[in-house]
Amino acid sequence: MSDSGSRKSLRMPDDDEVFAIVTNMLGANRVSVRCMDGKERTARIPGRMQKRIWIREDDVVLVEPWDWQDEKADIAWRYSKQDADQLRREGHIQSG
């Protein structure tokens, strides 16, 4: 089955954003993420996302690391499972 017809144009990271995988739910609107730049960060779920978008472990998200504290970040976007699978196929995300 050819996949070229089903490719969606996905939101890609801006200059200050990186792909990340949620590794742990910390509570208090915070999650632990493993970023594709090799760093583990504590990411904050912003208020505009808290009620509308549920974030779970193993979700693929886009995070924006803080300038002043590199070990922290804000979640900018969450990808659906299908979108995350497409990002993995295209090589943007390394699993495990």
TrEMBL record:
GO MF term set: translation initiation factor activity
Annotated keywords: Initiation factor, Protein biosynthesis
Domain S1-like span(s) in chain numbering: 6-80
InterPro entries named among the record's database cross-references: NA-bd_OB-fold, RNA-binding_domain_S1_IF1, TIF_eIF-1A, TIF_eIF-1A_CS
Family membership noted in the UniProt record: Belongs to the eIF-1A family.
Role noted for this protein: Seems to be required for maximal rate of protein biosynthesis. Enhances ribosome dissociation into subunits and stabilizes the binding of the initiator Met-tRNA(I) to 40 S ribosomal subunits.
PANTHER family recorded: EIF-1A
HAMAP family with a match to the protein in the record: aIF_1A
Protein name: Translation initiation factor 1A
Organism of provenance: Halocatena marina
The gene coding this protein: eif1A
